[in-house]
Design goal:
single chain; 276 residues; alpha/beta; TIM Barrel; eight-stranded parallel beta barrel; 10 helices; 9 strands; 16% strand; globular; IolE/XylAMocC-like; Xyl_isomerase-like_sf; isomerase; isomerase activity
Amino acid sequence: MKLGVNSVLFGGFDLATAVEYIKFSGYQGIELASIENMAVHLNDRAGDGELREIRKLVEDAGLEFYCVEAATDILVPENRERTKRVFERAAKLGIPMVTSGSAGESDNEEKTEASLRAIEELAQAAGDAGIKYALKLHYGQSIYNTKTAQRLVEEVTQPALGLNFDATHVGRVGDDPVQAIEALQDHIIHTHIRDTFIEQLKIAAPEYQIAGRGTVPLNEVVNKMVETGYQGATVLEIIGAKDYSLPKVTAIAAESHGYLSRLFQEANERKEQIQW
């Protein structure tokens, strides 16, 4: 079990604060947010000195680097160039992957074709940088459900490309998240996790994204992840808390850690019993 937190939860605070309280909440790793207009804890133009400071902060806290989230509209050429700069800095930090969505528009063939070409370009660049590119299935974008994800991995065969699975996005478009994990298991290299009211299209307020407070079938999702032998990191990604106080965002992280840790422990025990 590799549990981490996307630093976007601490978007109202500097990275040093995020690292301190992610560690305090019990997590093993961190996903750096590099998301313009939300949280930029890794700047795409960070110099070597700044990168050394980031590495020291995280290593001194005993955390692992899991990923960088660089969510952006990758159909815009300037944004793809920014993402490539993030790739380079992630590689220097020893971060194994960067994740983003596909942009585009669901069920729009022209936009989907453009997304596939943009993803191919970025996956090639990630491979050249020596890291992975985890494409996140995202509500409203070109790659958003099981079917479109399967099309992606069939048409874009870059070795650096994998999928970032988030049950809240897949579930809100009508797919069963558990069945989606089963179908996509060979391609999932990263996982975002949180709760929400899955029957609603809008992601709930941060306090209802806390694991266990919404209606996402997290128990079944975790069971399927363990059953299929998923070995990657599972990262708590909670958005919308930029104006929350430090005690509130720390409580969100800590409560989610307790809930998710229990789910993973029980799922692993169940798997061992079945194997026995």
